[in-house]
Amino acid sequence: MTTASSAPITVAFGAATDPGLRRRINEDSHIAASPVFLVADGMGGHNAGEIASAAVISEFAALAGRESLTIDEVHAAVASARRRVEALPPGGGAGAGTTLAGVVIADIDGEGYWLAINLGDSRTYRLSEGHFEQVSVDHSVVQELVDSGQLAAEAAQRDSRRNVITRAIGAGSDAEPDYWLIPAEDGDRILVCSDGLSGELEKDAIHGILLVEADPQAAATRLVHEAMVRGGRDNITALVVDALAVRTRTNRACERDTVPVSAPTEDADIDGDTLPRAVATGGF
């Protein structure tokens, strides 16, 4: 377990990753260094997905060590990461893409918030006061079908299109991320994971492990292990972040609602791998 005692949220965290049982290369990259907790899942449908994911995480690594970040700083890092991925040379990642999901610690008017970000189908979950929820919304063909009522939610996990994503960094996508500002509470537990985890473990199984394993490193390690036991068909990454103390000026939750925020103005299942919609359907 690693701890970070900087305001506005004091955290303890752990991280684990594995190529899985069917992959030679781990195309997942991640950073767990306060105030930045992100997972990038490189898309194997293109060349060198691991290069694209590493380039994105490298851009955010420059922000580690600060007490908090603003949405402008995060959005600027996304834009810079996109340029780096788009500039990858032939034979060195050209055409590759990656997802991006996770949280950074934000200071909003002197209070501690999670600023969640998402592009693609890696996921962010929050366990708070006994309530376990998926914060991010998958950018995937299957999620669009579920949202439109064309596919039952329980069938999504088995659908052959479940790995086709509709937003990414690189791979021909210029779509913007989704952002959410979430008021942090003492005792919050955040999970950030690639779809190699969520694709193997049902939500209830993930919830159970997060409840049983008190230490965040033990929780991350066990989550990856259980995904391996269930098949390990893809790269697997899990970050677990615990809020040990949160700076807040009010105890009234109604004044600190979770809100989506806008960015600042300025049939494909290849061995379980993540694919951009450009590969599956000819364009984003």
Description:
The structure is a single chain. The chain is α+β, with helices and mostly antiparallel strands and 284 residues long. The protein has a single domain (2-273), classed as 4-Layer Sandwich (Phosphatase 2c, domain 1), CATH 3.60.40. It contains 8 helices and 16 strands. It has helices at residues 49-61, 71-86, 141-147, 153-156, 195-198, 203-212, 216-229, 277-281; strands at 2-4, 9-18, 28-33, 36-41, 97-98, 100-108, 111-119, 123-128, 131-134, 164-165, 169-170, 178-183, 189-193, 236-246, 259-261, 275-276. The strands form 4 sheets. A 6-stranded antiparallel beta sheet has the order 1-2-14-13-8-9. A hairpin with a 2-residue loop joins strand 8 and strand 9 (131-134). The longest helix is centred in the N-terminal third of the chain and has 16 residues, at 71-86. The N and C termini lie far apart (40 Å).
